[in-house]
Amino acid sequence: MKAIKASPLSLTLPFLALSPAFMIFTSNLILGEKLDSYGIIGISLTTIGAYLLHVKTTRKGILEPFKAIRRERGSVYMIIVAFIYSITSNLGKMAVLHSSSLFFASTYLPILTLIVLPILLWKRHGKVKQAVPHITLFILIGLSMALATVTHFLAVNIVEVPYAISVKRTSLLFGIMYGAFWFKETNIRERLIGSTIMIIGVVVITLF
Questions:
Q1: Domain EamA spans what residues (predicted)?
Q2: What is the tally of structural domains in the chain?
Q3: Could you report the per-residue pLDDT of 109-132, keeping only the tens digit for each?
């Protein structure tokens, strides 16, 4: 949140794509997971594709987010976020291996809620009141997040974490389709390159 508040989305969100790349190393150090050459190629392709999805083809070019690191604190914060996520995802798998996917998923979200909810009520009490009339919508969102969490931990229990997270990044593609269909968003064509590269990366991970 601090990253996207400090800098434009176009200079921060692309760096979230770095988390699978970081996991090539962190998963090896934390879990001892070693990837073959095809796996590394697939992860690299999905990382590049995810990065390109968030970079607009402007005059400044596709490397503008990296050039902005020196002047934008948000870019630095988001790189830190991506690195932290590359660690916590592996720790999540460790928890799953010592318990089960369903048990950890069913305890992770309630504990997170108990920690975050008091802070939210304290700092954003007025915002919480505004959400009450839309409680049904928030319940549906919560159920969707719970299902996503369960399937996430089921996935990391079966395959190496970098593979699971790389495939998970294809959620960006669905986001683009939803944006075009429901919100009539434009600039879809310039994102086709990134989408295609991501799909190729997922195919490489899946088939090889």
A1: 2-53, 74-206
A2: 1
A3: 888 888 887 887 777 666 667 777
